[in-house]
Design brief:
The chain starts with a strand and ends with a strand. The strands form two sheets. Strands 1-4 form a two-stranded antiparallel ribbon. By secondary structure, it is of the alpha+beta class. It contains two helices and four strands; from the N terminus they run E-H-E-E-H-E. It comes from Mycolicibacterium arenosum.
């Protein structure tokens, strides 16, 4: 499983970074950058929470 981000949909709220800063970052404009590759079992819960909290629905698990 991995995370995909629709950067064009991102509104730079930063919720993903607050919940899972080891899986996400933001560029100079605040747009999400996925830093994780394949998720470990331990990372899946954090990734699901980030997807759920994204106000723009810009994240998804695949």
């Amino acid at each position: 499983m991995h995370i995909e981000a629709e950067r064009d949909d991102c509104i730079a709220a930063g919720n993903c970074v607050m919940v899972a800063g080891d899986l996400f970052d933001q560029d100079d404009e605040g747009i999400v950058v996925v830093t994780a590759g394949e998720l470990t079992e331990a990372d899946e819960a954090k990734a699901r929470e980030a997807v759920k909290l994204c106000p723009a629905s810009a994240l998804r698990l695949v």
